[in-house]
């Protein structure tokens, strides 16, 4: 027994044999006239059984059928347990054979007089389905009957199984017709399907056209009647004026393409439904009467996002499309009017001229800087890319920076670590003796304030730069600052709760176990997942997945998850290299030494914060004299920096030149150091 829901859904049809189930092994069914079978589904009970609770007899002389309820039938007695105001419908077979030519008449009569829907199984199908599969297999199975002797057992007969499938499909189709073409709409609703000429005439087009014609014929045969066809198919080019007439008359328009570009049909429909005085006169619509329209559109067409009042559907979901059409047709007039007004306001204000203006504005905005930039091609094959760089983005000349060095006396120098003073490819991560020597020479100049600003931990950086007495270190992106080797570490105030590490670390460990060559670096304020030693493509994919995973599980924590060069890092919010550079510059200014020379070199995304910070117009305007600023990225790539150096070798060459310039301005005792430096070089 089936309880029909208020909003019925179609039952999926599942089969385990090729082809249409109802036609397996030659079993054919007679559709009959199912327009008489529909009944209201609300508050309806459908009782399905093999046989209807009816007695049937045909008069041999007159050829007329006589029917009556079988008072002994259990199905009929079941009705006594159902509320008297419930509409009970029986679905099943008659115990007699009815000629196919009489089935339409018998179907209508049984539904009208007895609320019974016959399935009309062919005699052979009834035999194999009921006496074959049901009695030989299901009855013994459901009654826990095992064969007493091996010879009495029945081998599985696929032929009987196919008969069982076919019979069940016929029953299911009858039930679905009752659950679904809604008799109150029958004779009132017509779908006009316009087939615009295809741009090609291939096999797929012919097959689609054939299927459309077959579906139209089937629907009209089942649900049509003299003088009424539910589907009107127009195959061919339709003149504009004729389409306008269809749009103006249609209460609902459906554009249900599985893929489309900027389809203008919904817009045209809305305008036609708004009408004009001539159209109102032709349609006999009173002037000033409210206008209504309804749209059902595929979510895959270009205009779908712009029609907020339309019912959007997935065209592959047939049930959802059917429900949307029913909703559009039965929607109250007031809501139809409100949706139409919303759409018409949009369409009337966003015409082709508006689109052209918007497109040109977007094009001009996109190209505003285009002609002022230089384009560079990099890579080969699938890795080829074009970079658009500003003409002011240029290689940092040693001559320019030495000249600026000579004109200034309060210099701030910021250096990233990995990828800037030490190559990413370097197996030993500690700085080379040459780097230590150059940095020591720079730090001995009292006019220089040199800082290593890195994402690495304070312990590692302290050990690596233990020989540099006067160098400043900003560890873990500036969370910890030390102005010299002898000074204490300062901590930038961040959230004291590091409970998020208990969430992030297990996730990182999962990806470390799955990614050979990766490892976790645990810092005091952050966690970093490195994958530079993993297989490049796999490591990158794992990094992206880890980034998404961490962002999901840490969504409510006071942290940020960032992906850098071959790393994924989780750190507290508000901790950036840009913040620490501002703090250092502010401290120098408050100590009466506002910098007149600022050099910042880095290669990573995190270094972009430094470039932006030192170029901050508000900060520069607060200084007595604007400093000479050199923001420099390592490698030619889009950056907030104005200058670039090619690689770490280029960086070291520049630092050597600055060290030489600094040593020449210090005391004579440093001349020996310069000689030592030259010999080391």
From TrEMBL:
N-terminal signal peptide: none
Pfam families tied to this protein: Glyco_transf_20, Trehalose_PPase
InterPro entries documented for this protein: Glyco_trans_20 (IPR001830), HAD-like_sf (IPR036412), HAD-SF_hydro_IIB (IPR006379), HAD_sf (IPR023214), Trehalose_PPase (IPR003337)
Recorded superkingdom: Eukaryota
NCBIfam families: HAD-SF-IIB, T6PP
Family classification: In the C-terminal section; belongs to the trehalose phosphatase family.
Name of the protein in its database record: Trehalose-phosphatase
Organism for this UniProt entry: Hibiscus sabdariffa (roselle)
């Amino acid at each position: 027994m089936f309880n029909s829901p208020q909003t019925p859904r179609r039952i999926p049809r599942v089969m385990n044999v090729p082809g249409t189930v109802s036609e397996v092994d030659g079993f054919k069914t007679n559709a009959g006239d199912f327009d008489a079978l529909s009944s209201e589904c609300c508050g309806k009970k459908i009782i399905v059984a093999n046989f209807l609770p009816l007695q049937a007899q045909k008069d041999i002389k007159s050829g007329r059928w006589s029917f009556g309820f079988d008072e002994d039938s259990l199905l009929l007695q079941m009705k006594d347990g159902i509320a008297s105001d419930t509409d009970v419908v029986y679905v099943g077979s008659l115990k007699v054979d009815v000629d196919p030519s009489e089935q339409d008449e018998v179907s209508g009569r049984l539904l009208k007089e007895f609320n019974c829907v016959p399935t009309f199984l062919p005699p052979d199908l009834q035999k194999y389905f009921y006496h074959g599969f049901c009695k030989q297999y299901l009855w013994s199975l459901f009654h826990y009957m095992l064969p007493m002797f091996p010879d009495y057992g029945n081998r599985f007969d696929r032929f009987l199984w196919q008969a069982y499938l076919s019979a069940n499909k016929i029953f299911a189709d009858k039930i679905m017709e009752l659950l679904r073409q809604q008799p109150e709409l029958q004779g009132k609703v017509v779908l006009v399907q316009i087939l615009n000429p295809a741009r090609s005439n291939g096999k797929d087009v012919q097959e689609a056209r054939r299927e459309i014609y077959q579906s139209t014929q089937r629907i009209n045969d089942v649900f049509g009647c003299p003088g009424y066809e539910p589907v009107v198919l127009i195959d061919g080019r339709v003149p504009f004026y004729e389409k306008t007439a269809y749009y103006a008359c249609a209460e609902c328009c459906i554009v249900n393409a599985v893929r489309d570009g900027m389809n203008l049909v919904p817009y045209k429909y809305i305008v036609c439904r708004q009408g004009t005085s001539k159209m109102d006169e032709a349609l006999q619509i009173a002037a000033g009467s409210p206008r209504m329209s309804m749209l059902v559109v595929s979510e895959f067409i270009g205009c779908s996002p712009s029609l907020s009042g339309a019912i959007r559907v997935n065209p592959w979901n047939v049930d959802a499309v059917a429900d949307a059409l029913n909703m559009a047709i039965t929607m109250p007039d007031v809501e139809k009017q409100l949706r139409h007004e919303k759409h018409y306001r949009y369409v009337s204000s966003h015409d082709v001229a508006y689109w052209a203006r918007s497109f040109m504005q977007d094009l001009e905005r996109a190209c505003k800087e285009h002609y002022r930039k230089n384009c560079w091609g990099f890579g080969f094959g699938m890795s080829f890319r074009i970079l658009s760089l500003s003409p002011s983005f240029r290689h940092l000349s040693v001559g320019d920076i030495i000249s600026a060095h000579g004109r200034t006396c309060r210099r701030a120098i910021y250096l990233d670590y990995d990828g800037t003073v030490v190559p990413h490819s370097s197996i030993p991560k500690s700085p080379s003796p040459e780097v230590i020597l150059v940095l020591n020479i720079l730090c001995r100049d009292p006019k220089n304030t040199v800082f290593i600003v890195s994402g690495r931990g304070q312990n590692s950086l302290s050990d690596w730069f233990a020989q540099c007495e006067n160098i400043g270190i900003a560890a873990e992106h500036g969370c910890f600052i030390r102005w010299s080797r002898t000074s204490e570490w300062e901590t930038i105030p961040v959230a004291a709760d590091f409970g998020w590490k208990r969430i992030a670390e297990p996730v990182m460990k999962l990806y470390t176990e799955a990614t050979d060559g990766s490892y976790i670096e645990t810092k005091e304020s952050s966690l970093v997942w490195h994958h530079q030693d993993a297989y490049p493509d796999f490591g990158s994919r794992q990094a992206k997945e880890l980034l998404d995973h961490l962002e999901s599980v840490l969504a409510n924590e006071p942290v940020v998850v960032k992906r850098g060069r071959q790393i994924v890092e989780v750190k507290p919010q508000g901790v950036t290299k840009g913040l620490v550079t501002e703090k250092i510059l502010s401290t120098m200014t408050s100590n009466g030494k506002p910098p007149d020379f600022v050099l910042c070199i880095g290669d990573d995304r995190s270094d972009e914060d430094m470039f932006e910070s030192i170029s901050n117009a508000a900060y520069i305007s607060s200084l007595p004299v604007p400093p000479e600023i050199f923001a420099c990225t390592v490698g030619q790539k889009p950056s907030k920096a104005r200058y670039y150096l090619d690689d770490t070798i280029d960086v070291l060459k520049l630092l050597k030149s600055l060290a030489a310039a600094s040593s020449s301005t210090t005391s004579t005792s440093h001349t020996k150091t310069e000689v030592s430096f030259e010999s080391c070089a």
